[in-house]
Design goal:
Helix content: 10-25%
Radius of gyration: 22 Å
Number of domains: 2
CATH architecture of the largest domain: 3-Layer(aba) Sandwich
CATH class of the largest domain: Alpha Beta
Number of helices: 8
Low-confidence stretches: none
Strand order of the largest sheet: 2-1-17-16-14-3-12-13-15
Mean pLDDT: 92
CATH topology of the largest domain: QueA-like
Structural class: alpha/beta
Order of helices and strands: EEEEEHEEEEEHHEHEEHEHEEHHE
Amino acid sequence: MDPSEFDYDLSPGSIAQRPLEERDASRMLLVDRASGAWEDRTFREFQDLLGGNELIVINNARVLPARLFGRRAGLNGQPVGHTNPARDEFLQRVIEVLLLRQLESGAWEALVRPGRKVPVGERIVFGDGELEAQVEGRGEYGLRVLRFQCETDFHEAVARLGHIPLPPYIKRPDEALDRERYQTVYAREGNAVAAPTAGLHFTPKILRRLREHGVEIAEITLDVGLGTFEPVRAERLEEHKIHAEAYEISEATAAAVNGARRENRPVLAVGTTVVRALEDAADKNSGGAEAIRPGRSDAHIFLYPGKPIRVVDQLVTNFHLPRSSLLALVAAFAGRDNVLRAYRHAVEAGYRFYSYGDCMLIR
């Protein structure tokens, strides 16, 4: 498929730059998978649109304040000298580090800017020196492997020194408000560097009402990566090299999903990250007696039109970037023509787009 088949027109003014005052005040476009018909609703109507026998699966990943600002401190443990003040001033300029993926204890893959000025062996110091990293490996486009050392707990230091990594289409610095609002109310696990944004609309009250309504809720953890914002650059969609994302499915969640499948109850995924985790697990368990098995794994699956959806029956999702793997996933679930017609309507009707924007319920 040509990636241009997943283009649509959107003015910059339609991209939400801040969250609404209330999480559940978002608009919600209800889309029928079979017919492509849509209705304009609000997220506060979500429970009323369900049958009460659904299994809702949410992603409880917590977003790290993964954007750090440090300074160069020298090579291979040697401090910056003081024989050349002009050179020392250049070396001390701010270095931006965006944590992408934990490789092992203390080691992270990160995006470093300006990357070309930070060679292997370079040390980067953050804050007053309580956190330090040494470059152990080098990749393309500013990717580095960093080994961190910390005077205290690493996550404590990152929480104190880091900034929320807002998506590139939000054209403002992060604010104190983002520490709460770029996080779901049920976030508690993992090392995500982007929010599972479909979950941002939920409130404790809505979750309580769902349970009282008889809806079952299960959780997975998928560490959302920076690749979620990457456009498809390959000439053909099928050739796109999709990023891997770590996920974990508990025994309780696997049992809930398998039970719902046996009982013909709909599995409703909150977000494309949940779809990816469940469908990757089903793909790895192809031919097994149950739909999925519990455990930890990396999701490598790339879902686009023509790929089978084995587990998920309904989907809550925000609107996604043109030519993105996430838009291709939604098109695999609901049909490309249905999705693009719904998107065109959403644009014309003034829906707010992307992470802090409105959502769709596709069933």
